Amino acid sequence: xxxxxxxxxxxxxxxxxxxxxxxxxxxxxxxxxxxxxxxxxxxxxxxxxxxxxxxxxxxxxxxxxxxxxxxxxxxxxxxxxxxxxxxxxxxxxxx
Length: 95
Prior knowledge:
- The protein has one helix at 53-60, and strands spanning 11-13, 21-23, 37-38, 63-65, 71-73, 76-80, 83-84, 93-94.
- It is mainly β.
- It has one domain: CATH 2.40.50.140.
- It is globular, with a radius of gyration of 14 Å.
């Protein structure tokens, strides 16, 4: 549509047949447009902002909400400079 998107929305969902879905909550103090990070993983901006569907599917299988309500990648909390990202859907999956 002529407008480049450089953002992404992360939602949590329950594992039920008819899942409950909600947006992952970021700390209120987080800066607009801030990149999230994962402890133990170093990241550099990609040459292209787009990710292929096959890479995205591979990433999604390791994203979930732990039993404390923290959004995680593998076993690392998804964080901003203001703290961790959370969901009320404990034990859910991230999409």
